[in-house]
């Protein structure tokens, strides 16, 4: 029997409701399994419509005046068709949800609290029927199409970011865990002179949520962006920290020279991470037409954008994995967990699709990444300006990997790299309102115009690979466009 402070605070708040809410129900001793199954479905669906994270059933509270009178209901020993009640219910609920019965010592009175997570990806069904709460009735959801539409409208934008990273915290505990000063600085907002103002802004950007009894929850979004220490949170958050590893050779078998496991949230620690990487990079005195006496081996804008992309586009639901940045003698690899939502060969032209829209929106607002749809353009532009081998975007198992290569002369590039560079150059020209020509490809590779036939060979190979085509077959001098144009 629990006396957990948060559980007691939840019951206190529920008892203060003027009447049963669509996501809250009071019972005295009714233990019927069919009734409970329908209620779980109805309250889960209704909670999502009402923007609540949980629905609740309390046994032992009188419906009329919400007095705590106690209950004889014993969910731990209750059987349905010879099965334990919780197992019987779980087998009949789809999608599966993590409901929980608790026996509560409520100031000396025995109550039962059933906590039901709000529907997340689809309406919750019991015995293949979804239910909804309307007043004190629990009808089938299919009988009320307007409510079904309202539920689906709420389900569509549901995302990992709105989940709870830490719950039932005091205001002091929230401010101790989040770098709220960085939030106000990065979003260019003045720091309020009182706590209420601070929490109003954190709440508006969904970094925190109100919990029971005047307490607060930190959302996954708040934790992953602004945690002072990601290790202060559960492993599902802590393992999303960015890892950086540098090797003294060209493979992972070589000696590790530098390693850093990020502890701060992405936004709070982004500048420090990029500066740390930049400080480790060798300097190159001359890189083609982008000559500078003190330039890092890789363009800073390319590193910044690819790191930001890895943070934004990762699949947060992949357990035990976070973004990984690896520096080798001849390349840099940036990997994020999750299958791409857009084919890697279309990263440049297709509108980006992000699993983490709230995170992406805040990162753009804080100018930690480029405007939507322009990041990869800038990466390829910078690579071409520095006449580096073309970046490689590919799927590796259940992850996406972007590879930047160290400077190499045109003669040292592989045939595959030349073809990939030709395709990326054609795509970059097209999205810029231009067309690739033999002369522009010579410029991209640093080929002397006297040797323009080398560019012609590459264009022919790229056409044969099906990656580009003539812009106008009847006018060969019109240039070339990517295959999807």
Automatic annotation (TrEMBL):
InterPro entries: RecG_C_sf, Schlafen_AlbA_2_dom, Schlafen_AlbA_2_dom_sf. Residues 20-138 form the Schlafen AlbA-2 domain. It holds the Pfam family HATPase_c_4. This is ATP-binding protein. It comes from the Bacteria. Keywords: ATP-binding, Nucleotide-binding. It comes from Tabrizicola soli. GO terms for molecular function: ATP binding. Gene3D superfamilies: 3.30.565.60, Schlafen, AAA domain.
